Amino acid sequence: MESAVVNTAETKDRKARRKPESLSKIKSAARKLFVERGYDSTRPQDIAREAGLGHGTFYLHYPDKRACFLAFVEEARQEMDVHLRDARRPGQALEQVITATLNAIYDYCDSHPGVLRAAMTDAAVIDAGGGPDTPLMARWGEEWSQIIREAAAGGTACSSYDAAIIGQAIAGALHQAAKEGARGQQCRRALADNLTRFLVRALRPD
User: Fold this and answer.
1) Where are the domains of the chain?
2) Which of the listed CATH numbers 3.40.1390.10, 2.40.37.20, 1.10.357.10, 3.40.50.300 matches domain 73-206?
3) Could you name the CATH architecture of 1-62?
4) Buried b / exposed e across 96-121, counting CB within 10 Å, b at 16+?
5) Nearest to 142 by CA among 128, 113, 115, 163
6) Is the separation of the CB atoms in 59 and 122 below 8 Å?
7) Each residue of 151-200: pLDDT tens digit?
8) What is the rounded distance in angstroms from the CA atom of residue 199 to the CA atom of residue 61?
9) What is the pTM (predicted TM-score) of this model?
10) Cβ-based neighbour number of residue 79 at 10 Å
């Protein structure tokens, strides 16, 4: 009887150890496939196969592909936030904040190829009936809105703009500019310089 109890405890302990290990493998495989194939062309069974696990193991961690993708997006956001925190410094002027933010984005793209492109998949693509979470692009728009509000409060940016609207516009413009820059293989420094000068002039106080 005592031996059976010990064996049961050992089995539970092994399962408890395997669960985080299998989740890590699933997340790594999902990230790889979302980047390489995109959301639409990646299936749960593909992720499980890439992870070297059984198909059913995927559903031990995620109810569906959408939930797995949103977890991937959240991980990318957190990684990006680390880059942004490291690049920004308290008391920076608006121009310095913009430059630091742009360089942080480009640094992240260099060290994590394809991740942001995949994470920015149109929200309509992943809407599975319950409505998607706030898209990554919209979150960044909110962050830019906050930057504008703080700059306006400090007298270094136009206070008559609707910060919420302008923040979203900046996020969209930067995303498109980055895509064009990559296509044309433009110098990253030149791209950041042009965008910084444009935004500083556009946000200049009245």
Assistant:
1) 1-62, 73-206
2) 1.10.357.10
3) Orthogonal Bundle (1.10)
4) ebbbbbbbbbbbbbeebeebbbbbbb
5) 163
6) no
7) 999 999 999 999 999 999 998 888 787 776 666 566 777 888 889 999 99
8) 43
9) 0.76
10) 15
CA-based torsion, 165, 170, 172, 173: positive or negative: positive
Token pair recorded at residue 206: 């009245």
Pair 112, 106: CB distance under 8 Å: no
Question: What sign does the CA torsion over 110, 69, 52, 21 have?
Answer: positive
- Rounded distance between C-alpha atoms, residue 105 and residue 171, angstroms: 11
**What token pair was written down for 13?**
């302990």
Q: Is the Cα torsion angle 57, 60, 66, 71 positive or negative in sign?
A: negative
- DSSP track, 51-66: HTS-HHHHHHH-SSHH
Decide whether 1-62 matches 73-206 in CATH topology: no
From CA 89, how far away is CA 9, in angstroms rounded? 51
Rg, the chain, Cα only: 22
The 10s digit of each residue's pLDDT in 101-158 is 888 888 888 889 889 888 887 665 555 444 446 777 888 899 999 999 999 999 999 9
Length of the chain equals 206
Phi, psi of 128 (to 5 degrees): -105, 35
Question: What number of H helices and E strands is found in the chain?
Answer: 10, 0
